């Protein structure tokens, strides 16, 4: 039962999850949420659920919900609520103090607080406490005025952050209209300006850096300062090139990947000319004037900026698991399509990422229980942008009489080596053939690095 340790079960204040739906069935009631579903059998179950569901808001205890019922009905109501708690359809809402947030803030940001409540079932803190943590956080947005950085600042203000710090005086009065709109709702908000990126970042909870062209070198400097720093902020990088925007992964603890790891893996899986342009700009700065639409259309910039603000919101309200921080969001600037891919530390990254544990690669590091489980674990290494392998190439192959698995392996070292296709076979299933192909590809990848080359020397900037 998901409770917060009440002395008596009737003191529990249940709140039904926002995504729970229920239907009448012949044997009782069918319940469904985003994670699970079940059928509760019993005469009158649907009627009881219809009565209790609107009242399970977390404001009243079970004792208050059952007030006025006789003993038999009290047992029925308690049994239904207990089942909802046990199955994860409801949670016990801890009661917060009345003055945690001003009424104007609660009203203006009710959707954000409800969102936090919906996704933080295991956190003992109340949604208001988690939102208050975000609202009072110190966030620095680094980047040239306009574009993605401006959209990110607006998104942070609209989601409830009380103060955003920017590091370029050229921003001027860019956000006065946004601040005035919030003031009209009785909510205070400010955008503070500092003259350049601070040397000491320990006073910030999160740093957002939007980089394109000339600003990419500044992002690299920020990454070197934030990576592995204890205490230190989380760094959320946004890297823009002529074709796509890459948001993340979140940098912080030394064992996590960084945006350099993501770009190295993208370079191995994409057009070499585009990769060369990116690294040339990082080393030498922009070559010639950049076109006005270098960061995509205004719609694309707003989409990415809102995504940045949303990631910061999730990070500071405790919704991002450690594994979530290891992912990057890749958005195509032409089609606006986006995908989320896991990033592994790259052996060629100049930053120290330590050793990569099996649990960093797979959600369940235990040995596979069957062929399907083995395939699922192997497939984690396959993704089109940041995977060690960029995809399966066995679709055109006739799978009769022998099953053939074939995967495209990105170059491990020099990009000039090009991608390889690794094949493996099985007499029964393509899942086993593909799993064997991945294992062979991993062996080839490690062999290409050579003995000891996976242990990169210390960051030369240290």
From TrEMBL:
InterPro entries: Bacteriocin_synth_cyclodeHase, NAD(P)-bd_dom_sf. Signal peptide: none annotated. This is TOMM leader peptide-binding protein. The lineage of its organism: Bacteria, Bacillati, Actinomycetota, Actinomycetes, Kitasatosporales.
